[in-house]
Each structure stands twice: as C-alpha cells, then as structure tokens.
Specification:
- The protein starts with 8 loop residues before the first strand and ends with a helix.
- The protein folds into two domains: 125 residues, Enolase-like, N-terminal domain (Enolase-like, domain 1), CATH 3.30.390; 227 residues, Enolase-like C-terminal domain (TIM Barrel, Alpha-Beta Barrel), CATH 3.20.20.
- The longest helix has 22 residues.
- With 362 residues, it is α/β, with parallel strands linked by helices.
- Helix content is 39%, strand content 23%.
- Helix 2 runs antiparallel to helix 3 and helix 7 runs parallel beside helix 8.
- The chain is globular.
- The protein is built from twelve helices and 13 strands.
- The structure holds magnesium ion.
Amino acid sequence: MVPAHNLTIREVRVRAVQVPLAEPLKTASGEILTAPLVLLDLLTTEGVCGTSYLFCYTPDALEPTAQAAANIGAALTGDAVVPFEIDAKLRQRFRLLGVQGLMTMAMAGIDMAAWDALARAAGLPLVSLLGGAPKPIPAYASYGMVDAKGAAKAAEKAAGAGFRAMKVKIGHADVATDLAVIRAVRSAVGDAMAVMVDYNQSLSVPQAVARTRALDDEGLHWIEEPTVAEDFEGHAAIADETATPIQMGENWWGLPDMAKCVAAGASDLAMIDVMKIGGVTGWLKAAALAEANGLPVSSHIFPEVSGHLLAITPTRHWLEHLDLAAEVLTRPVTIEGGDFVFPETPGTGIEWDEKAVARHEV
Ligand SMILES: [Mg+2]
C-alpha cells in the first residue's frame, strides 16, 4: 500500500464522451438528450489512479470543459495529491477570472479524482477515508417531466425497485396538469411513497406563488427550484407564501452562492451538486454550513460520490438516484431496499467500462 500522503500528480488524463440516455430527460426548461461527460483519470507517479467525471449538461460545453480540465491538470503536474492545497492553489490561480462555471467544474473534477486517489492509496472506500461509516443512505428515484400516465408508470417502477421516495419534474402548461401528474403518482403507489416535484426554474415569482399554493394540500415532500436559481429573494418570497418545503441548491456555484442563499432564507432544504459546489472539498465546507444552519442536505446527480459524502453530512437527507454515467461504469450505483449500497472497493467505486467509453468517446 502506498502511503496516501506521498502521492504526486503525474498526469491528468481527460476524455469526453456522449452517453446515450434510455429516454430524453425532459424538464420545464429544456430537454437533455444525451449525457455529455468529461472523464478524468488522475495518474500519480506512485501508480495509483483516481477517477471522476463531470456532467456538462449540453454538448456545447463538452469540449471547453474537457480542455479546461486538461489545462488545469497540466498546471498541477508534480504537485502532491493534497486536495485542500490544490483547492487553495487553483482558487488563487483563478482569483481574477472568478471561480464559477466551466473552470469550477474542471477544478471539482480534479478534486474528486484526487480524493479518489487518496482513498484508493489508503485501501479504503472514500467514506472511511473521510472518517465516516458506510451506513444506509435513503435514495429517491428521479424522473423527468412526464404526463399523468407516465408518472403512474414511473411510480410503479420506483415502488417495484424498493424506493420509498420519488421525484417528477413538473411545470406543465397549467397547474391542473401539474396536479394531475402528482395525483396519478398518489393513486398508483399511495401515501407510503414520499413525492418531490421539480419546476427546474421555469416560473416567474408570482406564477410560482400561485402554483406552489395550489400544490400545498398534496402532501409533497418538497417543491424544487420554482423560479430562476440565482433569484434568492424570489425564492425567499415563494417560501414565505408556501407551506411545502422549498428545495434549492443544485445551482450553487461554490460556498459563496450557498451562503448568500442561506442568508436570504431562500430555501428550507439544501441540494448539493458535488461538481458545482467544488468537488469533495467543496462539499465538506458546504456540509458544515448546512449543519450550522440546520438545513437537511440532499445530493444532486453524481450518486457514486454523493453516497459517500452524505454519510459524513450531519444533516443528511436524500440521495438523488439519477444515474447519468451508468453506461460507462463497470459497477453502476446499486440501490437496495431504497438505500444506496456502498461499493466494497477502495475509493468512490467509479471504474470505467473501457469498451463502453470507446463506443461513446468524441
Ligand atoms: Mg432539480
């Protein structure tokens, strides 16, 4: 076993893939047809390799994100694999540019790969390296925007797979259709299933207030991003008028956004995206802020890494199960009895299915 503190970055290998989705992921603010992913391998001179991936949302961002990761990786050649030091170095390097957007994504990918390398070198799952226990993490099944019939089918599928919670995206032409979708889920699986809904930022503040009030008697677990993600004041106004908890956070670019959102009282809950928040290092900071403010923390996509991180998050809530990278992994995340199952391998458990990667590489 290589002492974890002795790893040195030799090279960051970057590949871009476009992974086909079984069905397009429809939202009220646009459709995702394929998963554009940047795959990172952080190779060390000691022979240990750490892996991670980035989700680029749109193919337009795939090449520049991959290039940013390659550029940053080259700048780190010869550095020690010490994530907090790398984080500080890169924040300083990009001080004048600012730390958000594609650069933050690339930094987060390298950070996740660095933590993975440390855990692999230590022969430990990431959760154990971070001082946590691999305890059951409740997961919810996450679906796109579907009609009432599709929602009932999705609910039956989720219940059949053992999930105790599920989410559908709404924001249909009128609130009656949103209600029909939610009620179709209820009549398919009853009250035992917790139900969340996601507007994907599609409403104005007045529209959102009207719609969320109309949904208040549906017993929803949360209503996600009713208006644009940057509008913390707007979300605060909506939260004031709505009995159902408001969920946001997947679009926080690092801790400063989260801190502003918390200060505005914009969200009753916190949904952390391990990439946009700044990798594992960013999550650790965010988890502390959430604890201090009593905010229950759920994850946003990236289930492989997020499972480990929720286990060490004192206010952990739900893991989102939306597995965009499954096609290129040898061991996609497994959920048993509605809970995230920790892989027994060291690291995060991310390992490329090289044949699949070759099929989808661009
Ligand atoms: Mg969302």
